[in-house]
Amino acid sequence: MFIIVLNQSNIIEDGTNSTLRYRFPTSVQFKKNYIAVSSVSMYYSWFNILSSYNNNKLSYTWTSGGVSTTYTITIPDGLYEIASLNDYFQFVMVQNGHYLISDTGQYVYYFDMSVNVSRYAVQLNTYKVPNSLPAGYTAPANFAGFPTETFNPIITFPSLFNDIVGYTPINGVEFSSSSNIGDVYVPPLSSPNSESKNGFGTLSYLSNTSPNVQPNSSLLLSISGISNHYTQPSTIAYSISPTVAIGQQIIEKPPNFVWNRLIDGTYNELVVKFLGVSNKPINIRDREMTIILTIKDMDEQ
Description:
Blueprint: E1 2-7, E2 19-30, E3 33-43, E4 57-64, E5 67-74, H1 82-96, E6 100-101, E7 107-108, E8 111-116, E9 121-126, E10 154-157, H2 161-165, E11 175-176, E12 194-197, E13 203-206, E14 219-223, E15 236-240, E16 249-252, E17 260-261, E18 265-275, E19 290-297
Antiparallel strand pairs: 1-19, 2-18, 3-16, 3-17, 3-19, 4-5, 4-10, 6-7, 8-9, 9-13, 10-11, 12-13, 14-15, 14-18
């Protein structure tokens, strides 16, 4: 047996950090040889929301006076959990003046999103926006103005973003919550499986499918020179699923080698790729990685 070590010095500069090339010092002849992944060390640093994925937008409708305006939230490319997405939504509402300040100095927002652990769902809450300043509250300098009638903001999850939060389109129509104008609740056109309203005018919704917060929750490792007739593409040799938090180091050491037959022939190089669920190279942010491959003859144990 002998090993091949690839690290950041082997990365092909294509902007994704997901393709590595190992060049043999001299051409080698492989005949009845097998290759396996010995270990992989890398950081969990590939984004789940990207403009190139078209999953980075949602919108909400806000009413000032008698005029309703729809605002698009464009999420910067990044690696988000539901809590950090909610933080960004609140940042946008502050910029747009769509909040109030309570008597204790807390910012009061009128929609939020959180994980409902017991239901394995993402919960959306929208709150009734008052038509005048509540006692003890203050309005920020950039406050957009009060509505003529109370309302709940209408939140719309368009296609692809709704996969992240588990609100799938129903009858081909993207999810939109109810406005609840004047405390009159009209069910949304495309409703999730569970929705409710309490006595304060709060509307709560639960996602109707399992949230797919990280579309690329596992990566496929492809090695050139192998032909696995039972996978697509045929160069797939291994799968890596992070069991660490965002930004932490993934250390993958298979308990047993999964051997793949190398196609007989003369080799100058091997190319290793990390692929996402669409079998396309994934964009890995952190270049620091080490991949160890082991090659053996057919008769070696």
